[in-house]
Design goal:
With about 190 residues, this protein is mainly α. About 55% of the residues lie in helices and about 5% in strands. It has 12 helices and 2 strands, in the order E-H-H-H-H-H-H-H-H-H-H-H-H-E. It has a two-stranded antiparallel sheet. It starts with a strand and ends with a strand.
Amino acid sequence: MGLDISVVVDNYEDVFDKNYHQNDDENFNKHSLSRTFCNFICRKEVIETEPELDQIGKIVAVDISAIYEMENYVDIEELAEYIDEDESEDEIIKAELNNTKLEGNIKKFLNTVSELISKLNEIENLPKLLLNTEFDTLNNDVYFSSFTIDKGKGYIDNNFGQDLRNFKNFLEYCLKKETKTVWFVFG
C-alpha cells in the first residue's frame, strides 16, 4: 500500500452526483491521479535537491505555486480533534486563514495545469532535462516520458502527461458543476 492523492471540492454533492457514479469506470479513467503523481507532489519533503515540479516550472516558465497551495487546505473539525487545547485557537485561526486564501482557486489552478500541458507538449524528452536526484522513486525515465501519450488506465501506470490531462479533465468537469475551490487530500 502507498499514499494516494485526491482532489476535494467545495461542492461535493454536486460534483459526485448520481450521474457521476453511474459512469464510475469512465470517470475514474478520465479523472484519477496516479500514486506516482502523489509521490511527485510530495517530493519537496523527500529530497534535498530541487524537486521535479520546481524544475519543470522553470523549464517551461510556468508559475507552479498554485499547485503547492492546494496542499494548504486544512479540515478545521479534524484539526480541532488532534491539537492541544492550549494551541487550538491559534492553530484554528491559522488554518482558517489558509483556507480563506484558497477560496475560488479553481480557475487559477486550471490555468496553471493548462499552461503546463501546453508547454510540456512541445518538449520532446523531458526526462533528459530533469536533474538527477538522490532518490528516483518516480522512475523519471518512465513517468516523464511520452508526455503526449496516455500510457495508463486512469490510475495504474499513468505517466505525467496523462495525470495532468486527467487533472485538467476533472477541473473542467468541476467548473461545469460550479465548483469554486479545490484542494488536495492525501490518504
